[in-house]
């Protein structure tokens, strides 16, 4: 269990308790109305799934059930809250997208707590949570409003979306992946190279000792449009290794990573220029990638466009981003009905 960020209990301002169980992280956080993260506990199931080379849905659901009570208790104690009758403004949970069995665990717990404590329940879209992650680290009381629109490359294990965020709750889809998500490509290539699971951190680590120019992998639609595609890149890696059995994993990993970085940065920059963005952002697990963060930072400096990067802990799945999104939702859209269903394919609400 890790504590990416926690702080001493703040005076004033009841928090929202957020619960995130959409995939393989059991996470609970308490975030104040001012956006202060009072506790953020993430219990990763990596060890349970590593032997299978990926997330096994049945194992994930059962593990959430087993882990959630301890994660909740720790988040409460780190936030300085009593377990019973806490002065919370609401309880929020991810309702989708994600694995149905996993979503149901967090969602049911949040509804039960809200009902028992007589406080509002808020159902949060996981993707919207990722969009709020950068805001948690870069906005709040005493800071200027973000320079809307923000163009966000939301690159995770399940999604690769290019979004123009015109404000909280105001999203336009600029592009998406035609096939694999960026994180999926990292995971599949890592599995092929025998680097283990999850693939992103394993590739980043191997790549640190390799030459990003060793192999020239395809960069799909680099100079064209706002859509992404990663399946050709994955196939090219497999073919290259088959043809060059002596190629070092480090060189292959570095060359693959560089291809993903080049494409994601090019698309975020093109999207930002298309809408006249005030800042460029990254979100989702792949946004924790060091070379990707550095490359977008350099592009922003070159073009004079500010870059907002969530902290690495805020990129991968966590419950702070769910509680942060819930605050906005509660204040602008109100609570969610207690019969809100878990939806594995829940889409992001987009502006028309
Ligand atoms: O956002 P996330 O934690 O879960 C989803 O919503 O999917 O993203 C997980 C994905 C995985 O595919 C993982 O391999 C990737 O993010 N990832 C990374 C890194 N850390 C996690 N990819 C590249 N570099 C990393 N350092
Ligand atoms: Zn995620």
CATH architecture of the largest domain: 2-Layer Sandwich
SSE series: EEEHHEHEHEEEHHHHEHEHH
What kind of assembly state do the chains in view correspond to? single chain
Helix content: 40-55%
- In which order are the strands of the major sheet placed? 3-2-1-4-5
CATH topology of the largest domain, which one? Answer: Nucleotidyltransferase, domain 5
Could you state the CATH homologous superfamily of the largest domain?
ATPase, nucleotide binding domain
Shape: globular
Task: Give the number of DSSP strands.
Answer: 10
Average pLDDT figure:
93
Q: Can you tell me the CATH class of the largest domain?
A: Alpha Beta
Cα-to-Cα separation, first versus last residue:
41 Å
Poorly predicted regions: 3-12
Query: Which distinct ligands sit in these coordinates?
Result: 5'-O-[(R)-(carboxyoxy)(hydroxy)phosphoryl]adenosine, zinc ion
How many domain units? 2
Rg calculated over all Cα atoms: 20 Å
Number of helices: 11
In summary, what is this structure?
With 352 residues, the protein is α/β, with parallel strands linked by helices. The protein has helices spanning 46-50, 57-78, 100-117, 126-138, 182-193, 199-207, 231-243, 249-275, 290-303, 312-315, 320-332, and strands spanning 16-20, 25-31, 37-44, 90-96, 121-125, 150-155, 160-167, 170-176, 279-283, 307-308.
What does this structure look like?
With 352 residues, the chain is an alpha/beta fold. It has 2 domains: 15-137 and 314-332, ATPase, nucleotide binding domain (Nucleotidyltransferase, domain 5); 150-309, Nucleotidyltransferase, domain 5, CATH 3.30.420.40. The protein has 11 helices and 10 strands. It has helices at residues 46-50, 57-78, 100-117, 126-138, 182-193, 199-207, 231-243, 249-275, 290-303, 312-315, 320-332; strands at 16-20, 25-31, 37-44, 90-96, 121-125, 150-155, 160-167, 170-176, 279-283, 307-308. The strands form 2 sheets. A 5-stranded mixed beta sheet has the order 3-2-1-4-5, with helices on both faces. It has a 5-stranded mixed beta sheet with strand order 8-7-6-9-10, with helices on both faces. A hairpin with a 5-residue loop joins strand 2 (25-31) and strand 3 (37-44). The longest helix is centred in the last third of the chain and has 27 residues, at 249-275. The model is unreliable at 3-12 (pLDDT under 50). Bound molecules: 5'-O-[(R)-(carboxyoxy)(hydroxy)phosphoryl]adenosine and zinc ion (ZN).
